[in-house]
Specification:
The protein is of the alpha+beta class. It has 3 helices and 8 strands, in the order αβββββαβαββ.
Length: 172
Amino acid sequence: MRKTLLALLASTLLVSACGTVRDSRINPMNWFGPSRSVPAASEENANPLIPQRSGLFAKRAVKVDTYEGRPFEQITDLTIEPVPGGAILRATGLAARQGIYAVRLTPATLDEQPVDGVLTYRLEGMRPDKATPQGSNPTREVIAARRLTNQTLSGVREIRVEGQMNTLVSRR
């Protein structure tokens, strides 16, 4: 009984001490201090949600990777599957050699907007640095897909996927 009474008394004294040291650094409620108004950044293109890099690791900024894929030689299949909220564009390509990697459907326009109702993509892939065997058709075939939203598809009458030797088109 004495141990619980002593523990209760010690915890009561500890909690009451937080009230007497209201303005001290011991009180966890004062660690960040009160809020105050500061002037907004005046940069025109600054996004307030993206922090500016500063500090010890500021020079280790993330480098933007550029995609250096080359178009596939031949596009063999193009399908568009409707899904809730848009569609999935799937293209199958046939490369000249084996070993193509990082395959993508790259939009022909930067903002991925249709030009005269035509949305155009290129099936591209990265080539290996070393020489690779040609191989049979199934070993050189790749499939790439891209999700298209209803906003992207609004006003689109035709979707084109381009390769080096041919282009496949799907119309509404």
